[in-house]
Amino acid sequence: MSWDAEVKEIHERRALAKAMGGEAGIERQRHKGVSTIRERIDGLLDEHSFREHGEGAGEPEYDDEGNLVSLTAPNYVVGVGKINGRPVVVGGEDFSLRGGSPNPSGLRKSIYVEDISLKFKLPLIRFHEGGGGSVAGPSGKRNRGPSGDPVLSRPRFISLAQTMSTVPVVTCGIGPVAGLPAARLCAAHFSVMVEPTTQVLIGGPAIVERALGEKLTKQELGGPQIHLRNGVVNNGAKDEAQAFELMGQFLSYMPQNIWELPPEIVSDDDPGRTEEALLNIVPRDRRKPFDMRKALRLILDRDSVFEMSPLYGRGQITALARLDGHPVGVLANDGKFYAGSMDADGAQKVRRFVEMCDQFHLPIVSFVDEPGFMIGSASEKSGTIRYGAEVIVAVMRTRVPWVSVMVRKSYGVAAVAHFGPYATVFSWPSVEQGPLPIEGGVAVAFGREIAAAEDPDTKRRELEERLAAGQSPFPRAESFSVQELLDPRETRPALCEWLSLAKPSLKLLLPPPQARPWPIL
User: Fold this and answer.
1) With contact defined as beta carbons under 8 Å apart, do 255 and 262 qualify?
2) Which of 17, 28, 420, 448 gives a 20 to 30 Å CA spacing to 197?
3) Which pLDDT tens digit goes with each residue over 446-466?
4) Which CATH architecture does the domain made up of 35-54+74-142+155-252 adopt?
5) Element of type H or E holding 366
6) What is the fold, at CATH topology level, of the domain defined by 276-431+473-509?
7) Any idea what the Cα angle at residue 335 is, between residues 334 and 339, rounded to 5°?
8) Reported pTM
């Protein structure tokens, strides 16, 4: 006697589950201009690499004779696939069914996606589109069975915290993301939102209007114009295809987990390459900003600079890149915003970034043009000095190798955040350094003299120019306060040589193997 009937039912259940919210639910997705969760997974992963877990899960309905009539699919899809040949775990809400609000099997799958990532120590990718919990509960019905989890059950969010501390976590918001999915979107090392269609919300318009009387649209509450600038989400994408590309790019710099080193590639970019344009990239007029991103592109491996959170904390630049094929974390200042000074947002941005680099064993390359912490009433109200102290503590706790290239300004306490413990330090001839920027220092030290002068403005400029002329980097190089005073054109060769010496020490940062093949879940 064969098992044909049972096998037929297995395939029937799978087909019913893959119907998701049915033709009507899927058509609503199409009408909004977004794809289904299965289409997103296929668009992200290598072709034919996705292996779904729990294909036949769901809530069945039987007739009086015990035959399967229908199956309500889990509104969460999860499985394992590959990106550029490297295995990853991926999951996401199915918005075509109950608007992504979890049903019982979907809720279990949304937790399982983290457990399976931890079990096999694989990067975790989550797509988010949904409204979180429902007042009707996961089943959609009230008073059905026991309420809540058993008192001694494992807390649901332990696995969320464990993934953040052991594997790279990438999230993508497509469509409205509210409540719990919004929190999970932020619980990532890299997050991206598809700008035309995504809103990230703690509570939607109806809740906000009922509680606070504010009548706002989803876009006004949590569109990209809000969350790409406040640091909730790292990067924006013009469409889903670009979002998939950004997610894959980020992971290409990351190890699979904290027990591995970042993946090197064979680079065809000469480590000894020099660029004539670097000689003139910093203007002699110290009041004129320059294009730091252009400098980064000229020094780092060609086409390797991947900037994170470009619209948040804009005086600070954080990026992933490669030097001679090896991934590195890059810090820099953008003098076109607040002269590159560090405000509260910039400090939090840098802290998160250096903590991520340290966690995943990425050497840090810092290009310093820091005039100090942002001053003024707005800066005081935002708590800049508190967040500034936190980023300095985070930098001093890092264990990865650091190299700092002093490009222009290096002033005040904020400059400390650009030099890791025992950093190798190179200096360009354009550097000026001190406890305060010259303008502020002159105003403090020579305030009475300037006020008493016949022409205060002329006197102030004279003092500033005289002190600026004394800011030469040569005395510090002579006293061996920096490892080397560089011709700017020598920067790439010097950094590649530094990295070749620093790389072997990265192996010492790997945590010891675990006693069990996977964490206790």
Assistant:
1) yes
2) 17
3) 677 777 777 777 777 766 666
4) Alpha-Beta Complex (3.90)
5) strand 364-370
6) 2-enoyl-CoA Hydratase; Chain A, domain 1 (3.90.226)
7) 125
8) 0.89
